[in-house]
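Renewal narrative, Specific Aim 1. Our central claim is that a sequence can be written position by position from structural information alone. The example that follows is taken directly from our test logs and has not been curated for this report. It begins with the structure tokens describing the chain, in the order in which they were read.
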């Protein structure tokens, strides 16, 4: 009961904007949130991001904190929702990139060179990095983040026709580069590119 009273006092302090109370709550719960996030995400970096995002949300919405409900449950609910959103976004991006793979791989290439999906995706990711900066930005907004041409045009203050032209040029470049390589050449290309990035 004493600990519960202390926690209520800390929560009331946070509601008033007391940063020391906030720091104390962070010290109490951050390691638990980290362990929870790490178990699901299997990434220390992502788990740390979740912890930071959870407490950012707590501070941002400190006026909404309730002292009659479990603060721990409140924190873990936020963490769970952030992790769920991360996986939804990851799945959405993967679907967009799968569509890119379909667009750049014609039937002749798929049957004749027998490139597997993972090799194609690795090559595409590397080739995207070779695109001119503006073209790469447009391509990623479209194919990785799902923006429409109109949304990209508005975001970058350019015409929709420019967006369309850049996307067509990017796809032509990626398709041509992949079509140049046999399965063994493609493997060597990927390894050489990765070596050059170190």
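The sequence written for that structure reads:
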């Amino acid at each position: 009961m004493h600990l519960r009273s202390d926690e209520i006092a800390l929560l009331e302090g946070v509601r008033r904007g007391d940063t020391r109370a906030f720091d104390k709550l962070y010290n109490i719960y951050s390691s638990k949130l980290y362990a929870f996030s790490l178990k699901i995400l299997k990434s220390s970096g992502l788990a740390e991001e979740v912890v930071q995002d959870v407490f950012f949300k707590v501070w941002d919405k400190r006026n909404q904190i309730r002292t009659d409900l479990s603060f721990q449950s409140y924190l873990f609910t936020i963490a769970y929702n952030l992790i769920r959103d991360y996986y939804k976004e990851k799945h959405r991006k993967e679907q967009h990139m799968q569509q890119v793979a379909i667009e750049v791989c014609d039937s002749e290439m798929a049957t004749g060179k027998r490139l597997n999906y993972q090799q194609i995706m690795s090559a595409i990711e590397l080739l995207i990095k070779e695109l001119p900066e503006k073209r790469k930005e447009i391509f990623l907004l479209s194919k990785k983040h799902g923006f429409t041409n109109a949304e990209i045009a508005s975001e970058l203050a350019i015409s929709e026709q420019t967006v369309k032209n850049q996307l067509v040029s990017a796809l032509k470049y990626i398709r041509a580069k992949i079509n140049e390589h046999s399965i063994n050449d493609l493997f060597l290309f990927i390894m050489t590119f990765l070596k050059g990035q170190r």
